[in-house]
User: What shape does this take?
Amino acid sequence: MRDIAYIALGSNLGDRAAYLARARTALAALPLSRLLGASSIEETAPLGNLPQHMYLNQMVALETELPPRALLDALHAIERAEGRVRTEQWGPRTLDLDIVMFAVQTVDEPGLTVPHPGAHTRDFWKRELAELTEGSRGE
Assistant: This one.
């Protein structure tokens, strides 16, 4: 099934802008997928209570035929290629890639919930998503 995945990109370690740029390139290279657009990049405060640097965040629209689990696996592989080590929730990271939502599909299975449970609570995701979807709704 062809669908549009809205994927959040975040980084707060090292050259944050370079991590986001390499993630966009890697996403565009995924099989059965095409990068449709990217929101503006914005700097945000980290979530949670761990002391850490500010994040750069962005969202992309990716048209894909990959099933949701295969897409998630591909996102994790991109994170690992950029040095992501999963240690603590909301901890510092070189790169974080989250499926925020699909245009059509929803998913509720162990380890994968789409729309993302934080989709409606993160103002920066709302702004980035609106930036990507405004044109597609004819507004």
Remarks:
- Strands lie at 3-11, 33-38, 42-44, 55-64, 96-102, 107-109, 112-114.
- The radius of gyration is 14 Å.
- The longest strand covers residues 55-64.
- Residues 3-137 form a domain with the Alpha-Beta Plaits fold (CATH 3.30.70.560).
